[in-house]
Amino acid sequence: MTFGKSWKDNLVLKPYWLIQNLRKKFLSIEIIKSKIEWDNFLKEVENYDFYHTYDYNSLSKSDNETPILLKYKENDVLIGIPLLLRNIPNTQYKDATCVYGYSGPISKNIPDGFDNSQFKEVLFKYLNKNNIITVFSRLNPFIKNQHLILNNIGLLTNKGQVVNINIQLDLEKQEAEINKRLKTYINTSRRSCSARMASTKKDIQEFMNIYHENMDRVSAKKLYYFNKDYFHEISNTKAFKSEILLAIDNESGTIIAGCQFITTNGIVQYHLSGTKNKYIHLNGTKLLIDEMRILATQRENKYFNLGGGLGGRDDDSLFHFKSLFSKDFKKFDLWKLIVNQKVYDELVTKKGIIEKSDYFPLYRLLDDLNVKFEKH
């Protein structure tokens, strides 16, 4: 791109370039949408999780969402933020959110005490030029420098904690941290059940059925019901390692439970799981988590994240269950950015929302609450 009399007009183009001659810094920001460019970017950064990949973002998007990777370069500093771009209905505006899971910025060559003022300036110019009113993302407790990059850019709030099993300890020390009663359940389950990896389309279909049965039992929201294509595509991608462990009742040979674990760059994520109603008493999920704990340790992975409670809480029964495996809790934060406060307030007012809520963005509160339970 050349810069002539109309260089200001070029700011709205993608890729969009800025040059600060006085500071002798090369600054650029561009939007990546293609898998090839996205994958190439991931090869450059120091670390990322599967939530940052093109494949997962593409697989997770809704019909009205466009996966984008916002790429920023400042000399040798590299920052990328994966987002899902959405139109705000009946307006000229857009907003951006993240996939289900833990994403946030990934980076390379971020120095201690990184000055993010240039990044903030360029980011706001891009967002304003493209009518993007808000940005929301859940951060990843296992990716470095996220808070440093986002410092003083919007609001960083603590949502709660997630449970990490410290698989960098030896197996004996890990087992010493497991709740005694849970250990009894696991040992009992190991005597009545066996575990194996899903290896066929039939296995994946069976896991999907069990997962949906589990969602029915807990009256889950629509967003937690993933369709058939989701299960098969996430299992077959080469962008990360997806594994489904199945628990088999030794007496009947029935698959009674399944857990999906996804490993990327030494980070193991406990993604989805389910147990057949008839076999809950056999504690198959507990067994499978413990089996993956052992396997991940043997593979010399770094982290094993069980996640938090429902909606990110750390004070409910789900979090309590996970905390029986480990007390190595990691803080889980949210990033909320209002780019244009005036338009944001107008959108909230237009929706007739007057109640105080932590929901973000607030103008989408009623729409999201009104999403009806619906199976795929």
Question: Topology, pairings included?
Answer:
Blueprint: E1 16-20, E2 25-32, H1 35-44, H2 54-60, E3 65-74, E4 77-87, E5 94-97, E6 106-108, H3 117-129, E7 132-138, H4 146-150, E8 155-165, H5 171-177, H6 180-192, E9 193-197, H7 201-217, H8 228-236, E10 241-249, E11 255-264, E12 267-275, H9 284-298, E13 303-307, H10 317-323, E14 328-338, H11 341-350, H12 365-369
Parallel strand pairs: 5-7, 12-13
Antiparallel strand pairs: 1-2, 2-3, 3-4, 4-5, 4-6, 7-14, 8-13, 8-14, 9-10, 10-11, 11-12
Helix pairs in contact: 6-9, 7-8
Describe the fold and architecture.
- Residues 1-14, 16-24 and 370-376 have low confidence and may be disordered.
- The protein has helices at residues 35-44, 54-60, 117-129, 146-150, 171-177, 180-192, 201-217, 228-236, 284-298, 317-323, 341-350, 365-369; strands at residues 16-20, 25-32, 65-74, 77-87, 94-97, 106-108, 132-138, 155-165, 193-197, 241-249, 255-264, 267-275, 303-307, 328-338.
- The chain has 2 domains: 7-153, 3-Layer(aba) Sandwich (Aminopeptidase); 163-330, Gcn5-related N-acetyltransferase (GNAT) (Aminopeptidase), CATH 3.40.630.30.
- The chain has 12 helices and 14 strands.
- α6 crosses α9 and α7 crosses α8.
- A hairpin with a 2-residue loop joins β11 (255-264) and β12.
- It is an alpha+beta fold.
- The chain is globular.
- Strands 1, 2, 3, 4, 5, 6, 7, 8, 9, 10, 11, 12, 13 and 14 form a 14-stranded mixed sheet that branches.
